[in-house]
Design goal:
By secondary structure, the chain is mainly alpha-helical. It has one domain. Helix content is about 95%, strand content about 0%. It is built from one helix and no strands. The longest helix has about 45 residues. The chain is rod-shaped and about 70 Å long. The model has no long low-confidence stretch (mean pLDDT about 85).
């Protein structure tokens, strides 16, 4: 029983680490898209003038 709890806790810990990494990557990705859109619009405005 103790061994099973250890395995479950280890699995939960590794899963949360993976989930945390993915959430950080997702935030970075959305920030990159926002930045890219802003840069793209800025470049378009510059070329119009």
């Amino acid at each position: 029983m103790y061994l099973t709890m250890e395995v479950i806790l280890y699995h939960l810990k590794s899963t949360s680490i993976v989930a945390g990494t993915f959430s950080v990557m997702y935030v970075d990705f959305t920030n990159f898209i926002k930045w890219f859109v802003i840069m793209h619009h800025t470049i378009q405005l510059d070329t119009d003038i």
